[in-house]
Amino acid sequence: MNEVAAVPWWVHLLFWGILLLFDGMMLSYNPTKFGSQLVLRQFLLRAALTDALAAALFYTNWMVLIPRTLSRGRLVPYIIGVLVLLLLYIPARFGTSLLIGGAAEGARNQPQTLAMIVPYGMMGLMAIFFSSALRITGDYLRALSNRRELERQQLLTELAMLKTQINPHFLFNTLNNIYSLTSRKSDKAPEAVLRLAEIMRYLLYESGTETVPLSRELAHLHSFLDLQRLRLPASAPEAIRFEVAGGPAESDFPIAPLLLLPLVENAFKHGDLAARPVAVHIALALVPDTGLTFSVLNHVAPDDAGRGLPDQPGGVGLANLRRRLELLYPGRYALQVSTPPGQHLVTLTLRQS
């Protein structure tokens, strides 16, 4: 790659802008000194050569010295390189003064000329350190941007892995339900397969985006609940209750896909579906432009009342949910689990900002 092209355009603009500004200040500092065209031409020539020497220091440090020393963690070679550049720069500046002013005049003013060693050295150091400051700052900002992009890619990868864990987990439980229906030769089995097809369509084709409208997520939950109702006796249609409050604005509320399913699924996995009159009570309250609250209340069989949700295998869904919330809604969610007598209540609160 062309090394000059590696220098950003704004660095060229900034460096040459400062040089030209400095030359302009020198020219306007004492305009009567440049009364004759000869003196003015000498000044412009000296300024051009001086700027060329400063540019040689600046770009050599940027494109050669820093990449071969500081970028590799070699501080001592860098300092030696800076000293070598100064040893080349200072005689070149003297040569420029002699070339413009004439050898004879230079000889007469030799003591005064030698006194410029320190100022010339300082000017050279300024050019080198200005180059180093810009290069190091640019490298740091670029590394910071790359690190943020890497973190973003890692986040997307982790979310994708979590989602792939959700789908098989859900499919495993649903196939168990369908197997139970088919083993009893239930007439509900075909309808269960149809509901599963609708759910899998959502999982495969509509949940690949970062967010979906809340209405689509709720439609998916309704399909899931219809599938679960097939497990209940025909005399208990109201045993599963799903209430939504928030009005039509719910369709515009963005939410991460498959975020609510683990809470509902756990209620059926670990709840007592024989409880009456309501075995599972699901409620969603939406406050437009603010957030939502989603709660799932299920009854617990007396033998399981003293236990929380088991860690395996059902806890996989809840653990994945917590991790997804941490990644997608950092500082903007609350997940509360409580166990009233004979019941299990999980409440999820999401804030938009």
UniProtKB/TrEMBL annotation:
UniProt-listed InterPro entries: Bact_2-comp_sensor_kinase, HATPase_C_sf, Sig_transdc_His_kin_internal
Domain Signal transduction histidine kinase internal region: 158-233
Transmembrane segments: 6-22, 43-63, 75-92, 113-134
Ranges in a coiled coil: none
Gene Ontology molecular function: any one: kinase activity
Assigned keywords, A-Z: Kinase, Membrane, Transferase, Transmembrane, Transmembrane helix
Protein name: Histidine kinase
Source organism: Hymenobacter fastidiosus
Lineage of source species: Bacteria, Pseudomonadati, Bacteroidota, Cytophagia, Cytophagales
